[in-house]
Amino acid sequence: MRLDLYEEKRKDITNTAHHNRVNILVPFDTNGTLITYLLVGKKDDDANAQDTRYSVVTLWNTLQSQPGDIFSRIAEGSYAIIQSTVRDVEFVDGFQRVSASESYLFLNAMTDYERKVLVLWMNSSKEKKTEIIKSLQAATIKCCSDKVRPVLVASTVIPSVNDVIWAGVFSAQNQQDPENSALALYNISNIQGRTKG
Q1: Which superkingdom heads the taxonomic lineage of this protein's source (predicted)?
Q2: In the predicted model, is pLDDT for residue 2 greater than 60?
Q3: Burial of 28 (0-12, 13-18, 19+ CB in 10 A)
Q4: Which residue from 90, 89, 72 is spatially nearest to 32, judged by alpha carbons?
Q5: Which helix (H) or strand (E) is 78 found in, with range?
Q6: DSSP assignment, residue 9?
Q7: What is the C-alpha separation between 118 and 124, in angstroms, rounded?
Q8: Taking phi first (over 0 means left), then psi (-120 to 50 degrees means alpha), and beta for anything else, what does residue 193 get?
């Protein structure tokens, strides 16, 4: 895998005005893009508190030769972003499978009614950023059968030849309960609807 970032001019893509921003950069071999996750936790000083859609994932160029130059998020006349109507989003983990060119993002989300854990999947082998975003699929991850544990605390991917085996540590958010946390294993090879461990 060849990374051209050292050859390109430098541009700061952080935004110090938003203290709730988390950037994790992942290079894509085929299309020369990188992905950044944005934590959108609700804050009292948020100037866009009335917005109904929030940018949670943005794809950025990694090559000066791409349209818009290095670190541009422009894709065919619009921004290459994924938006959410859920404001309280916390990204916990993410990984990319190089052989299959797949990207997985794991997050906690709080809606008006409940907390839940989601997994997002994208096909990162697509040539255009808009095609990567169109490949997005999502599933709710449920844990466990004995009691509801709606918060993902930590996770890891387990090496496997054919399947994508993933382990997550889930919490019921009750520190007084001796069974507050649980470790669960999942086969997340096919992301659709709901995934149970």
Answers
A1: Eukaryota
A2: no
A3: buried
A4: 72
A5: strand 78-79
A6: P
A7: 19
A8: left
- The four Cα atoms 195, 139, 128, 58 give a dihedral, to 10 degrees, of -130
Phi-psi label, residue 133: left if phi above 0, alpha if psi -120 to 50, beta otherwise: alpha
Nearest-5° Cα angle at 96, 123 to 55: 65
Asked if residue 27 lies in contact with residue 62, where contact means CB atoms within 8 angstroms, the answer is: yes
Enclosing H/E stretch for 46 = none
Residue 153 pLDDT: 93
Of 59, 61, 60, 101, nearest in space to 82 by CA: 59
> Under a CB-based contact definition with an 8 Å cutoff, are residues 118 and 106 in contact?
yes
pTM of the model: 0.72
CA dihedral 21, 85, 55, 25 (to 10 degrees): 70
Q: Which two tokens stand for residue 53?
A: 């859609």
Distance CA(193)–CA(77), nearest Å, equals 31
pLDDT of residue 185: 93
